[in-house]
């Protein structure tokens, strides 16, 4: 199976402002569009799950067609797909998809004791408090009717991924001190999300603070019911952030 990826620079969802490359969300949406067309019984399943793993191997350019190649594969744990986004014969992104299964929240590791100096203790055995955990929370907004990522009364997979992308971008500035004109390049996407979840369910993304490692960072978000605190899924986005000057230098060398 080979399916062209629609790259429409007039699409104000993905091209909210002028860009010199195809944004990662176009490739994510292309994968979800293929799945929605070829496996709607799984993508639209009420109470189902989709696990998506994507790598972004190189930047996707605007001046050459891009297509998705691949299809269903044999797997022991339910329906599965493998897709590769190709441009000029080279892979720009790879996607692995699994359908079905149940949500199993990852257990937290044991609490790490606080620094004795910060709680005015000298002996470690007298430290009766764990390290403070800083959690950032943001509401997931439902796209208006007619929006490219809107669904028929459900939280769409594309909208959830885009919400996480926006939060990762925001945290790059607010939590990691990136300059306002810094350019964030996707490296990876991991998602374990519900399908058919009604949009009336109020969702939030929760992020436990983790420092960036140089220019790279991984933002992991829990998808949580804003009222009950029930977990519905998880998203993880790996990024490489460049200064504006560094980005322009990289682009000029392509």
Set out the fold topology:
Layout: E1 2-4, H1 24-38, H2 40-43, E2 48-56, E3 66-73, E4 80-87, E5 90-99, E6 135-139, H3 157-174, E7 183-195, E8 203-208, E9 216-225, E10 231-242, H4 244-252
Antiparallel strand pairs: 1-3, 2-5, 2-7, 3-4, 4-5, 6-8, 7-10, 8-9, 9-10
Helix pairs in contact: 1-3
Largest sheet: 10 strands, antiparallel
- Give the beta-strand count: 10
- What is the topology, as strand order, of the major beta sheet? 1-3-4-5-2-7-10-9-8-6
Secondary-structure element pattern, one letter each: EHHEEEEEHEEEEH
Chain oligomer state? single chain
Number of helices: 4
- Taking all Cα atoms into account, the compactness measure Rg is 20 Å
Structural class: alpha+beta
The whole-number mean of residue pLDDT values reads: 92
Low-confidence region ranges: none
Query: In percent, how helical is the residue content?
Result: 10-25%
Strand content: 25-35%
């Amino acid at each position: 199976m080979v399916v062209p990826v629609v790259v429409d620079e007039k699409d104000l969802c993905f091209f909210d402002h002028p860009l010199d490359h195809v944004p990662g969300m176009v490739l994510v949406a292309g994968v979800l569009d293929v799945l929605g067309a070829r496996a709607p019984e799984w993508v639209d399943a009420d109470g189902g799950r989709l696990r998506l793993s994507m790598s972004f191997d190189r930047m996707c350019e605007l001046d050459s067609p891009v297509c998705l190649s691949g299809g269903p594969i044999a797997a022991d744990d339910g329906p599965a797909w493998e897709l590769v986004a190709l441009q000029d014969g080279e892979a720009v992104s790879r996607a692995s998809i699994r359908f079905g299964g149940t949500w199993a929240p990852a257990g937290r590791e044991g609490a790490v004791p606080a620094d004795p100096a910060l709680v005015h203790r000298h002996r470690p055995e007298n430290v009766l408090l764990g390290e403070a955990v800083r959690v950032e929370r943001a509401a997931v907004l439902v796209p208006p009717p007619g929006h490219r990522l809107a669904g028929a009364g459900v939280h769409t997979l594309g909208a959830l991924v885009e919400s996480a992308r926006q939060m990762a971008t925001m945290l790059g500035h607010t939590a990691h001190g990136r300059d306002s004109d810094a350019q964030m390049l996707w490296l990876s996407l991991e998602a374990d999300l519900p399908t058919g979840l009604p949009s009336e369910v109020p969702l939030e993304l929760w992020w436990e603070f983790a420092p960036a490692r140089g220019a790279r960072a991984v933002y992991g978000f829990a998808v949580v019911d804003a009222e009950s605190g029930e977990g519905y899924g998880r998203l993880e986005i790996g990024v490489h952030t460049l200064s504006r000057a560094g980005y322009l230098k990289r682009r000029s060398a392509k």
